[in-house]
Amino acid sequence: MARHTDTRFRDLVGAKNWSCLPRAIRQRFGKRLSGGASVTYQGQVTVMRMNLAGKVLANLARLVGAPLPFDASAVGQPAIVSVTEDIATNGQFWIRQYGRAAGFPQVVHSSKRFDGPTGLEEYVGYGIGMALRVETGPDALYFKSDHYFLQILGRRLRLPRFLSPGRLVIGHHDLGHGQFIFSLDLKHRLLGQLIRQDALFNDAKE
């Protein structure tokens, strides 16, 4: 699997902030896969919480491809993340698979594109997208929602704040020894913390 230096995430946070990240994070997000190649991380879900509003939202979202985790039984179940270089859009395809206590695992598809007003957008299908701001923290890289939008008939419609599902923060937290946590935290200004999910992963084996 051929890899090349990838500066796209470094450019979004700036060289100074990038240099403060743990080496392992810089390696994971600083290597670009050759066209069509993929890298896969395996682990398990360690935390899964939803309040009532979060359960309603996550299950409604199943109508548009289930982009949000919706099953609390995923705790302790296998989790897999696969990242594939998207040649056509100069971005990345992300596939997340979360096991469940019964039934088929939940599979979430999304496409990250280095475009838009914040420099990074994530599409989940059905014309639904989210502009992301990338920030660094102690031992972590964060992807924070800036706004949500719809693409209809070639037009981009930014959703007003009152129609937003909440502020989404995805974190990549390095634990050392080839392990890291992907965290998902969705909070609404009136409804509180809607969804919290953590999954522990191991580095991909070369």
Q: Helix amount, in percent?
A: 10-25%
**Count of helical stretches:** 4
Q: Give the topology string: H per helix, E per strand.
A: EHHHEEHEEEEEEEEEE
The tally of structural domains comes to 1
Q: Report the strand count.
A: 13
Strand order of the largest sheet: 3-4-5-6-7-8-9-11-12-13
| CATH C-level label | Mainly Beta
What share of the residues does DSSP label as strand, in percent?
A: over 45%
What is the CA-based Rg, rounded?
Answer: 17 Å
**CATH topology (fold) name:** Lipocalin
Which class do the helix and strand fractions yield? mainly beta
Shape: globular
CATH superfamily: Calycin beta-barrel core domain
Low-confidence stretches: none
Mean pLDDT, to the nearest integer, reads 93
Q: Main β-sheet, in a few words?
A: 10 strands, antiparallel, barrel
Query: If classified by CATH, what would the architecture be?
Result: Beta Barrel
How would you describe this protein?
The chain is mostly beta strands and 206 residues long. It has a single domain, classed as Lipocalin, CATH 2.40.128.20. 13% of the residues lie in helices and 52% in strands. The strands form two sheets. The chain has a ten-stranded antiparallel β-barrel with strand order 3-4-5-6-7-8-9-11-12-13. It has a two-stranded antiparallel ribbon with strand order 1-2. The longest helix has 9 residues. It is globular and about 40 Å long. The protein starts with a strand and ends with a strand. The model has no long low-confidence stretch (mean pLDDT 93).
